[in-house]
Amino acid sequence: MFLELKNIRKSYGEADSRTEVLKGIDLSVEKGKLCVLLGASGSGKSTLLNIIGGIDQADEGEVLINGDRMSQMKDKELTAFRRRHLGYIFQMYNLIPNLTVRENIEVGAYLSHHPLDTDELLNVLGLYDHRDKLPSQLSGGQQQRTSIGRAVVKNPDILLCDEPTGALDYQTSKEILKLIETVSGKYGNTVIMVTHNNEIKGMADQVVQLRDGRIRRQYFNEHKLKAEELEW
Amino acid sequence: MVRRNPLNRRWKAELKSDIGRYLMIFLLLVISVGVVSGFLVADGSMILAYDESFEKYNIEDGKFTSGHKLNRSQIKYIENGEVPVKVYENFYTEVMLDGGSKMRIFADRTEVDLVCLMSGRMPEGTGEIAVDRMYADNNSLSEGDVITAGDRSWKITGLVALSDYSCLFENNNDTMFDSVKFGVSVVTKEEFDSLPKDSLVYHYAWKYVSPPSDEKQEKELSEDLMAVMADETDLKDFVPRYLNQAIIFTGDDMGSDKAMMEIFLYIIIAILAFVFGLTASDTIAREATVIGTLRASGYTRNELIRHYMMLPLMVTTAGAVVGNILGYTYFKDFCADLYYGSYSLPTYHTIWSFEALLKTTLIPMAIMIVVTYIILARKLRLSPIRFMRNDLSEHRQKRAAFLPYSIPFMQRFRLRIILQNTANYLLLGVGILFANTLLMFGMGLPMVLDHFQQTIQENILAEHQYILALPVSSASGSHLNQMAEMVMFANGTQTDNPDAEKFMASSLYTPEGQETVSEGIMIYGCVPDSRYVHLNMTDEDVFVSALFADKYRLKEGDEITLHERFEGTEYTFTVTGISDYEGSLCMFMTQKHLNEVLDLDPDTFAGYFSNSEITDIDRKYIDSEINYDSLTKVSRQLDVSFGEMMYLLDFFSVIMFMILIYLLSKIIIEKNSQSISMAKILGYTNGEISGLYIHATTLVVLVLLGVSLPLVVTVLKNIYQTVMRQMLSGWLPFWLDSSLYLKMYALGAGTYLAVAVLEYRKIVKVPMEEALKNAE
């Protein structure tokens, strides 16, 4: 298995205010697959994504990516790991406001020894004509495409997407999902996507439903849909 | 019942969460308000004591010196002349004390120019003396000590301030006072009468019967009075009070110091106002979502403005209060000591100053309130939804500045950071300029003084210059006596010293200009092939010293008009060359040429140059001696007067530089905390992130430090030269060793390095969750 989670537990707060967010998660994802984590607010899906991404640390359990045990990594090693293997896409894009579209993508490219060609990627993302604009001059969809560009330009093993369409309208959301599908297909990235949009599960290879910090249901799509076929 | 805004309970938490920033602002305020308030209180109290001293000690309206003692009818003639005055005898004699100081001794005064006893008691018997407190301090003398001059000695019974010598000017046309090697003192009438008569100076003071109403009238009256005196007496010196540096210099200096301090305060306030402005914008940016939510919940704009103004105002108020307390206690004494270290002032009482409170507290607070209010009000104009979306950009269509892609990515990133923070960096530039100006003044003035002393040591014309004087008795008495005195003078002023070389000399005065005060210029008439003045001069040449040329911006071909002091005869010279002599403001021509100009016999001479002491001329024929000590009087006194202040300036400028850099770079990091957090998530190391955000600031600071130096030199040189021209006669050339630039640059860079370490720690502390805040 490319990504393995074993008995992941995480809680916040102390004493009476202690809340257990993840209550023993076991999960495996194969390389190159798209895994969707579904669940309502407070189900623990974002926390799980952050633990996979090394932004947050589990209280118990192990995270293995391609055999590397993340839970034993120190801060510097985690940084190096994120640098080599992970790409992040957020709901609110988190672009660097004073850099142009192209420069925001270069922020990702800088971290890789073998980045993808930035201009080619700009064309794939449909952003070439906007490459010299600042994020504030772009629509939400264009900003999210830039954020996808920044994540994939270093050709990461895993693309972590936290509600990538959460702030977008229907049409733009579909475009973004198509783009994620296209780039991961083209570059072979494993995608872990957190969403509360139940319909997105249709395009996933693997669907994991969380509730109250536990996996309520997990299954694999035998007939997954293309992003453009999704409706909600 | 009026309900209190619950938001206001946040102030403790906010203060705690941002303690670094508020502590720095507080410190800057405390130091600036403290220093300025202390200075204004000390200055105001001392100016009042100084102003009151005119009446309290019945200070003269003017003084004059006669070549001989005036008889009763001469005094009556003057007193009942065109300008009615009352004339008082105020004779003095001068002795050279063992140790090399000159002591001017007066008999205790009872009518005019009264003496303020600072400590001890006044002399009551022979062999007792009360000396000037300032001179005593500078020479480590105190009550009970004994001072000696040859075979005479006096026990110090008290330390005093002579009301007509608040500033120890030996001669009124001296470039600078000298409180180290020149002192004044009083003895009893009996003791004074027992002193040798050969060095007695017939010095008189006068008071107008009807005091003039303004300086213009005072000037007119004094000119008329001088004409009367010149008719009746052998007038050697005439100084109305408004021109008497020993009396007015202190008041003028305190007045100009006050103006300088106020300018200093306003610059700091302007800088602080900008810092507050930027801090307010930064706070709003950080709290955008909270503000959006509160606005959406029904909180009014004014409620939020009041809330966000509360903490800056509390800090400003606390800073001002603590600053004022320190100002009235510690800094006031420090500033008073600075004045007491330079001037011989009478005792003073601290006067509460509303002006100080207004200028150091109320005005700064008003400026802070207005600036913070305007910025907050402008920022809070945006709709709640814009705040909730964290969309605070006022120019939505702002385009990215073009940067060629050929520039490596990291460099481009840094340039973008610099462009994004232009306002912060501009403010930092102003702060660096200001701090560096103070620092350069603090570090540079000792260098100017050292250089001047070294220059004089290296190119002094001769170890000794003796200016001869006709004995007083030659101008009075019978015709026969006068003839005899002249013959004795001619014989008595010859020397067998092989080093001695005669020269002619005359002091002529520059006209009083808008830029400069009138001052004496020594004109040397040198013998052909002089051993001391190495100028190849013809009988038409007029050389000016490098110092004279520098001060008056003279060059070859320029014309200079000088006049005699009291007679007003004018002489015009054309400069034919600039001598490289930097010892004093003077001119050189041949002896023959100068005597021609003055209409004197070609062989007339006025003194000797000599590299060894001349011992075979009677002291009574020597009017003055110019040597290294007399030429370095100015630099020595400035060193004494400003020594401690220079350290204060150095300290203050470094602190201010540090605080500004800390505050502004903190804002830059906070403004970019989300980007920094995102970069961490992407896998950038702390080193790489610092390489972007700290190096951008480092680059700007290093460039600003470099650029500021030549600007500061230009600004400081202009201020220095303007002040020197307006305030002082004489000239100290502005000279800085190139090592100063290196030192200042290193000090600036070192200070920044300390702040950069704090910045690095701040970057390390930015949590990755910061980027996730809006992702929920």
Helicity of chain B, as a percent range: 40-55%
CATH class of chain A: Alpha Beta
Question: Largest interface: which pair?
Answer: A-B, 39 and 35 residues
Net shape of chain B: elongated
Please tell me the total number of domains of chain A: 1
Descriptive notes:
The complex is a heterodimer of chains A (232) and B (776). By secondary structure, chain A is α/β, with parallel strands linked by helices. Chain A has a single domain, classed as 3-Layer(aba) Sandwich (Rossmann fold), CATH 3.40.50.300. Chain A contains six helices and ten strands. Chain A has helices at 45-52, 75-85, 101-109, 118-125, 140-152, 170-187, and strands at residues 3-12, 19-29, 34-38, 60-65, 68-69, 86-90, 158-162, 190-195, 206-211, 214-220. In chain A, the strands form two sheets. A six-stranded mixed sheet of chain A has the order 6-7-8-3-9-10. Chain A has a four-stranded antiparallel sheet with strand order 2-1-4-5, with helices on one face. The model of chain A has no long low-confidence stretch (mean pLDDT 90). Chain B is an alpha+beta fold. Chain B is built from 22 helices and 21 strands. In chain B, strands 1, 2, 3, 4, 5, 6, 7, 8, 9, 10 and 11 form an eleven-stranded mixed sheet that branches. An eight-stranded mixed sheet of chain B has the order 18-15-19-14-13-20-12-21. Chain B has a two-stranded antiparallel sheet with strand order 16-17. In chain B, α13 packs across α20. Chain B is elongated, with a radius of gyration of 33 Å. The two termini of chain B are 40 Å apart. The model of chain B is unreliable at 471-477 (pLDDT under 50). The interface between A and B is large, with 39 and 35 residues.
